[in-house]
Amino acid sequence: MTIRLYAMTCGWLTMNLKAMLEGAEGKIKVPVPCYLIEHPRGRVLFDSGLNSQVLTDPAARLGKIAKYYDIVFDPGMDIAARLGAMGVGVGDIDYLINSHLHFDHAGGNDAIPDCPMVLQRREWEAANDPDLAAKNGFMRQDFDHGHDRILVDGEHDIFGDGSVVCLPTYGHTPGHQSLKVRLDTGDVILTGDACYLRRTLEEMRLPMILHDADEMRRSLDKLKELQRRGARIFYGHDPEFWATVPQAPARVA
Ligand SMILES: [Zn+2]
């Protein structure tokens, strides 16, 4: 059984590097990644990127956080267009997995309306708690579109065969999760924002944007252990790493 993984760049964000790497100077331009996984029993989307309204009016869509980002998001970069370019319709997705509910990971959820969303229960609960939602910068317009929800607690095996498994990596947000995908070449871990950059893991250096530093360190320890055992870590927003990842329609081998 072969699992196919496809990487898509759904925009670019330029921001202060220190937001991603505490104490660092300067700016960084980072990709907004989404992933399509094709399993013999269904298609999985891991994160949905930015909302299509960011194409036309980022300030209106993102509100007060818009000023922290210079955004490149051109026609053809939104998730529906990226999938369409591969011949995949938005109705062909069977599971929409969100690493977490920030605007650059769940903003395109409304474009994928006909399948359940899979997320950690504690992420959903945080997004619906006014204090935690405000603290974490969750915006209801990103994630509240009436999807059926599969709320999971910790590890969750999507197809029951160990090939596509949600891994809790809390800390960046209360219920952040990563995704383990078993390719013929070995395990890949799509880390989302549990690990922004290669340097995050190599230097164990936390970002400024986080919910719980201790939990985030524990999640990084877990990723490091998976890496030590041979898994390939796909950093969430690392432009140098991303330049080495084949883009859809090519497969990640
Ligand atoms: Zn992000």
Q: What's the CATH architecture name?
A: 4-Layer Sandwich
β-strand percent reads 25-35%
Low-confidence stretches: none
* Total helical elements: 11
Would you count the extended β strands for me?
12
> Compounds present?
zinc ion
* Average of the residue pLDDT scores: 96
CATH topology: Metallo-beta-lactamase, Chain A
The rough form would be described as globular
N→C terminal distance: 14 Å
Rounded to an integer in angstroms, the radius of gyration calculated over CA atoms is 16 Å
Task: State the fourth-level CATH superfamily.
Answer: Ribonuclease Z/Hydroxyacylglutathione hydrolase-like
Instruction: Compute the number of structural domains.
Output: 1
Helical content class:
25-40%
Order of helices and strands: EHEEHHEHEHEHHHEEEEEHHEH
Q: Given this structure, which CATH class is correct?
A: Alpha Beta
| Main sheet record | 7 strands, mixed
Structural class: alpha/beta
Strand order of the largest sheet: 4-1-2-3-5-6-7
Structure report:
44% of the residues are buried. This protein has one domain (4-242): Ribonuclease Z/Hydroxyacylglutathione hydrolase-like (Metallo-beta-lactamase, Chain A). It starts with a strand and ends in an 11-residue tail after the last helix. The strands form two sheets. The chain has a seven-stranded mixed sheet. The longest helix has 16 residues, at 213-228. The model has no long low-confidence stretch (mean pLDDT 96). It has eleven helices and twelve strands. By secondary structure, the chain is α/β, with parallel strands linked by helices. Residues 102, 104-105, 193, 236-237 line the site of zinc ion.
